[in-house]
Automatic annotation (TrEMBL):
GO biological-process terms attached to the record: polysaccharide catabolic process; xyloglucan metabolic process
Organism whose genome encodes this protein: Streptomyces lacrimifluminis
Name of the featured protein: Carbohydrate-binding protein
PROSITE patterns: TAT
Source organism superkingdom: Bacteria
GO molecular function, one term: hydrolase activity, acting on glycosyl bonds
Stretch forming the signal peptide: none
PANTHER family, per the entry: OLIGOXYLOGLUCAN-REDUCING END-SPECIFIC XYLOGLUCANASE-RELATED (PTHR43739:SF2), XYLOGLUCANASE (EUROFUNG) (PTHR43739)
Alphabetized Gene3D superfamilies for the sequence: YVTN repeat-like/Quinoprotein amine dehydrogenase
Keyword annotations from UniProtKB, A to Z: Carbohydrate metabolism, Glycosidase, Hydrolase, Polysaccharide degradation, Signal
Family: Belongs to the glycosyl hydrolase 74 family.
Length: 734
């Protein structure tokens, strides 16, 4: 057994997953020059899997199929849709084929199933509705999401915006399985009579909502009647927020409906077909933040009588999820949302809302499989941002609810644990694969800070990097010649910078930090020997502040006036006196030869004004720099940035990293998210970027992947890829 084989088995220990082989695309029809740049069509395929963290994002909806035991679907705000595999007890991703060009479609606004046809699944996709975002799309599948038929919409959807926990906004009409309804945020109610092939504005519905409103927040069927929640009410005593239709053409306000601040906006709805009662949860804001009032009401659909069944009168929170137990008349579960003081909970009734029990009060929560959910504390909480709850129609005690970080489930109403295997939706910003030590991967992400992975298929036992705990990572760097020394920066309540002397297992905060660190923490670099830190500061709104330097491990700091403000510092991996920075505003490469005390311009005339760029230094080689630019391709310098040459083998370069050299190769393997021969994908080069081999395929694209990539310095061929919504992917040659 080769040493690399042993290392590969060690880092993968604990896996029970089997990944599909990833083949390379055919080169048929491409020009000879294009084929030369891409490399041999016989390149080895790759296996791709998720590095296991466990959720880490907002699960906004789960729908159980009422006719097939064990069949369920989940949607997330920016990480795709999933189907539950009951035999394997894990979620199967359904949208990994979404390309970088279509990245806005990785967010799922809503999903719908056909109760009478279990193989049919419908998705409404669109992550953002701002002017800069692309329009949404509608997908339909006849094989439970294995393949799709796509219809591009003429409107924008917003699965990662306020109100993403409402719904469902997509509904199959109970009278006609070819008819679907889609509630939009800013374009009213849409209707399709051909299973989503075409869409038109529904006639007879209230006028188009305001630009800042929520539009249609929920659609639900009760027998042959369709109800639509309206999210643009003003909260007055006369506001109308719920409409219904019995013929699919005429929409009327539901008589006697609740109104006022506690019923300003319908959040969710669930129909008890046994009792003929419709339950509706309300809040005074779309959430998941900002709710301070709410209520729960039920409508007896045969008599038109409304009853207030609110479990607890809100004091600074609203209500979100609603689910009915189809096996037990009058059994309903609803969720609080934004109840930060006491913590969110689920309320359950078995008598139609006359009395309620808080399931969170007696819950025993086991997060041993995903320790990060302790958030640096001794024990986890019941969760927050609970805007969704679902009851298994075949098991009354199997309940799941989504939070801002995971999906919890129970089988006995008391013991809860994440039911999240296979579902990963982290937005990952930084990756380091250390050359030595137990960990093969360090990462920094939005929302969950930094993680230390010594096994890729197990969520880190230590949970999130703490002391201090960061909600979002802003920088991560390792001393090239002293890999036990690692530094990180980010957004936190108890400091914004930290260092580790054991490769990232344990941390200590910097003894002091510059004033700008609290509001504008940015990327950081450490010299090759770990003796000097250079910390850049960039506010979330783009404001750039003076960069600072420390020579005493963060005890004191001083301004580096010659450093280009807002740039990312990069240390030379060999010479501890040398650091670099690329100023995208001017297209200049700056370098320091005095350990970051001063910086001076070297190469000029490089691409400027390019928001997407990355400067990378090849490990083990002084002065070997690579510059990725989103709009202008790839550049390389072998003289410490004094000059750069254009790498002509690719057209666009998003992010680049290095790994152990292939057998017989004289240069490190270069891993690259790039456009080569007109195809954007993940590429590998074993000849210093003369030729490239695509190592992902069209079924493994994961939306936006231009954030970070690195090879493993100890395992030839192994690569780690950061995505914006699908966590960390790792690939190995099959």
């Amino acid at each position: 057994m080769h040493a690399s084989d042993l290392s590969r088995r060690t880092v993968l220990a604990g896996t029970a997953a089997t990944a599909a082989l990833v083949g390379l695309p055919s080169l048929q029809g491409r020009s000879q020059a294009m084929e030369s740049a891409i490399g041999s069509a016989a390149a080895a395929p790759y296996e791709w899997r998720n590095v296991f963290i466990g959720g880490t994002g907002f699960v906004t909806g789960v729908v159980f199929h009422p006719a097939v035991k064990g069949l369920a679907y989940a949607r997330t705000d920016m990480g795709g849709a999933y189907r539950w595999d009951d035999g394997a007890a894990r979620w199967i991703p359904l949208l990994d084929w979404v390309s970088q060009a279509d990245q806005n479609l990785l967010g799922v606004e809503s999903l719908a199933i056909d109760p009478a046809r279990p193989n049919r699944l419908y998705l409404a996709l669109g992550t953002y509705s701002q002017t800069w975002a692309d329009n949404g799309a509608f997908l339909r599948s006849d094989d439970r999401g294995a393949t799709w038929t796509r219809t591009d919409l003429k409107v924008k959807l917003g699965s990662n915006e306020d109100g993403r926990g409402t719904g469902e906004r997509l509904l199959l009409d109970p009278r006609d399985s070819d008819t679907l309804w889609l509630g939009t945020r800013h374009d009213g109610l849409l209707k399709s009579t051909d299973r989503g092939a075409t869409w038109n504005t529904a006639t007879g519905f209230p006028p188009k909502p305001s630009a800042s409103g929520q539009g249609v927040t929920v659609l639900v069927a009760a027998e042959r009647t369709v109800y639509a929640g309206w999210g643009d009410g003003d909260g007055s005593a006369t506001a109308t927020t719920l409409y219904s239709t019995t013929d699919g053409t005429t929409w009327v306000p539901v008589p006697g409906q609740p109104a006022g601040p506690a019923a300003k906006m319908p959040m969710r709805a669930a129909y008890d077909s046994r009792a003929k009662e419709l339950y509706v949860t309300y809040a005074n804001a779309p959430g998941p933040n900002g709710q301070s009032n709410g209520s729960v009401h039920k409508l007896a659909t045969t008599t038109g009588t409304w009853t207030d069944v609110t479990p607890e009168k809100p004091a600074g929170f609203g209500y979100g999820g609603a689910a009915v137990d189809p096996q037990r008349t009058g059994t309903v579960v609803v969720s609080t949302n934004n109840r930060w003081s006491a913590g969110d909970t689920l309320f359950r009734t078995t008598d139609g809302g006359r009395t309620w029990t808080s399931l969170g009060d007696t819950a025993a929560i086991d997060v041993s499989e995903t320790p990060y959910l302790k958030w640096g504390k001794a024990a986890p909480t019941f969760g927050w941002w609970i805007q969704m709850v679902a009851i298994d129609p075949f098991d009354s005690q199997h309940i799941v609810y989504g939070t801002g970080a995971t999906l919890y489930g129970t089988r006995d109403l008391k013991n809860w644990a994440p039911q999240i295997r296979g579902l990963e939706e982290t937005s990952v910003l930084f990756l380091i694969s250390p050359p030595t030590g137990q960990a093969h991967l360090l990462s920094g992400s939005r929302d969950i800070g930094a993680l230390y992975h010594d096994r890729l298929t197990v969520s880190p036992a230590g949970g999130l990097a703490a002391n201090p705990l960061f909600t979002t990572a802003a920088g991560l760097a390792q001393a090239a010649n002293k890999p036990s020394y690692v530094v990180r920066t980010g957004t936190g309540d108890n400091g914004n910078g930290a260092f580790s002397n054991d490769g990232g297992q344990t941390w200590a905060p910097f003894k002091s930090q510059p004033a700008d660190a609290k509001e504008a923490p940015g990327p950081i670099a450490t010299t090759a020997d770990g003796g000097v830190l250079v910390w850049s500061f960039v506010h979330w709104d783009g404001t750039k502040h003076a960069t600072q330097r420390s020579t005493d491990n963060g005890a004191t700091w001083s301004v580096v006036s010659s450093f280009p403000a807002g740039a990312t510092p990069v240390a030379d991996p060999v010479d501890p006196k040398v650091l670099y920075a690329f100023d995208t505003a001017t297209g200049k490469l700056f370098a320091s030869t005095d350990k970051g005390l001063t910086f001076a311009a070297r190469a000029t005339g490089l691409p400027s004004g390019d928001a997407g760029y990355q400067l990378a230094a090849a490990p083990g080689r002084s002065g070997d720099l690579w510059l990725s630019t989103k709009g202008n391709g790839l550049f390389r310098s072998t003289n410490g940035g004094s000059s750069f040459a254009k790498v002509t083998s690719c057209q666009a370069s998003f992010t680049l990293g290095f790994g152990a050299a292939a057998e017989g190769a004289s240069y490190l393997s270069v891993y690259h998210v790039a456009t080569v021969g007109g195809v954007t994908g993940v590429y590998r080069s074993d000849d210093a970027a003369k030729t490239w081999r695509r190592i992902n395929d069209d079924q493994h694209q994961w939306g936006w992947i231009g954030q970070a990539i690195t090879g493993d310095p100890r395992i030839p061929g192994m690569v780690y890829l950061a995505t914006n919504g699908r966590g960390i992917q790792f690939g190995t040659p099959a």
